[in-house]
Design brief:
Layout: H1 4-19, H2 25-33, E1 37-40, H3 74-85, E2 93-97, H4 119-128, E3 131-135, H5 155-179, E4 183-187, E5 192-193, H6 201-214, E6 224-229, E7 240-241, H7 245-255, E8 258-262, H8 273-280, E9 286-290, H9 306-317, E10 324-328, H10 337-356, H11 360-368, H12 372-382, H13 387-397, H14 405-416
Parallel strand pairs: 1-2, 1-10, 2-3, 4-6, 6-8, 8-9, 9-10
Antiparallel strand pairs: 5-7
Helix pairs in contact: 1-13, 2-10, 3-10, 5-6, 8-9, 9-10, 11-12
Bound molecules: L-rhamnitol and zinc ion.
Length: 421
């Protein structure tokens, strides 16, 4: 382990190097403190939830792998999250799904869920000064077995899911009210066709009407913000997904909801980073599902790759952090699940810090002057600046392990706790 003295010295030199470029490392770290990331609870148990833990995960999504030690109940999930959060600098948010309700062993229909089933989560978040985000769960349920929910041809099925989503908005509002920060409640449905449909329009019309019914109740945006998440295809909905990008782009723009852009929900060479500036010109705001598709919407743990950096640059360069809610969405069951949270969250923060350590104004003015030579040269030189020393100092000064040391803590936790499950 590097000594505090060593880390301070390395930081002092890095600070000077950045200052020579007109970049203020202290301001960058302070700005990073103000960028909460919403950790998704579902990485902790492979999207199982506590409703009926033996239910298969449906909806055309998949967590592959059988790494031992997954959380089997809310207490276990919370202590796993506590461990992950202790290794991640800053104060963040938690993103819950309706299937993570705690109903005290009693079966509660999803349409009847209320804030009372999330009191432990609210208490846990309050203690940490964290906000909560939310998602209705429209998969892994007998009433989603046809592959359709809010766009189902049968009105009674649609009505069931409308009721569930209405209940979820109220739960979101209760989170927002209790915690003093609005909850982002995100609707994602898997509705779609495996094979070429004859009628693509009627299901989309029904989805539009269902969403409108869900949004009729007037809920203060100070407590709850609605988001809708598009998708290109899923397992079993390869030919047509009802809630496509154009559908939700139009919906979010006209109904003034947030649009959720999931990094894995587009064509394999299409990136969400390039959609942020364009869609923000027409929308109130965005929710990002930071994920990593490998050949399909595989939800791999995010690594510090070009697209993660591009997403962070779009948030930071345009100073749009107040309109962009950053959420994570990956689930890898083949590695230690606590480590997965730590790796993905720390990488997202690294990408944001890298974006903050940039002389954006100068680069933009080169671009306006068509001085592409200097722009390219500067951007490439920035890549070998002593970023690592700033990141290490950031971790140290925010009281979390520096470098790979965090992994030792996950290993001890695995031996002491996860291995006994
Ligand atoms: C699925 C969507 C959705 C889910 C979560 C569990 O493709 O990305 O966001 O991952 O609701
Ligand atoms: Zn998603």
């Amino acid at each position: 382990m590097m000594s505090e003295q060593f880390l301070n010295d390395a930081y002092r030199l890095a600070k000077e190097s950045y200052a020579a470029w007109g970049i203020d490392t202290e301001a960058a770290m302070a700005a990073l403190d103000a960028l909460p990331i919403s950790l998704h609870c579902w990485q902790g148990d492979d999207v199982t939830g506590f409703e009926a833990p033996d239910t298969a995960l449906t909806g055309g999504i998949m967590a592959t792998g059988a790494y031992p030690g997954k959380a089997r109940n809310a207490e276990e999930l919370r202590i796993d999250l506590d461990k992950a959060l202790s290794l991640i600098p800053g104060t963040h948010r938690l993103n819950l799904h309706a299937i993570y309700a705690e109903t005290g062993g009693k079966a509660v229909d999803r349409a009847d869920l209320g804030p009372e089933h999330f009191q432990n989560w609210i208490g846990w978040a309050k203690e940490k000064g964290m906000g909560l985000d939310f998602n209705p769960t429209l998969f892994s349920h007998p009433k989603s077995a046809d592959g359709f929910t809010l766009s189902h041809p049968d009105k009674s099925i649609r009505d069931y899911w409308i009721k569930h989503c209405q209940a979820c908005r109220r739960i979101g509002a209760a989170f927002g009210e209790a915690l003093g920060t609005p909850c982002v409640t995100n609707i994602w449905i898997a509705d779609g066709f495996k094979d070429v449909p004859v009628d693509r329009m009627s299901p989309r019309q029904r989805l539009m009407d269902s969403l409108d019914a869900i949004l009729t109740e007037n809920i203060s945006k100070a407590h709850n913000l609605d988001a809708v998440e598009s998708k290109l295809f899923g397992i079993g909905s390869e030919a047509c997904v009802v809630g496509s990008h154009e559908f939700y782009m139009g919906y979010a723009a006209t109904r003034k909801t947030l649009l959720c852009l999931d990094a894995g929900h587009f064509h394999p060479t299409e990136v969400i980073s390039n959609k942020i500036s364009a869609s923000l010109l027409f929308l109130e705001g965005l929710l990002l599902h930071v994920s990593r598709p490998v050949r399909w919407d595989s939800d791999h743990v995010v690594i510090l790759d070009d697209e993660l950096q591009a997403i962070a640059q779009e948030i930071v360069r345009h100073k749009q952090a107040d309109r962009i809610h950053i959420g994570l969405d990956f689930f890898d069951a083949s590695i230690n699940r606590v480590a997965a949270w730590v790796i993905g969250t720390r990488n997202t923060q690294k990408a944001l810090l890298l974006a903050l350590l940039e002389n954006t104004g100068e680069l933009a003015s080169m671009e306006r002057d068509f001085n592409y030579t200097d722009r390219l040269a500067y951007l490439e030189e920035l890549k070998s600046m002593p970023f690592g020393a700033v990141w290490d100092y950031y971790c140290m000064s925010r009281g979390v392990p520096v470098g790979r040391v965090w992994l030792d803590e996950v290993k001890s936790y695995e031996a002491a706790t996860l291995a006994k499950r």
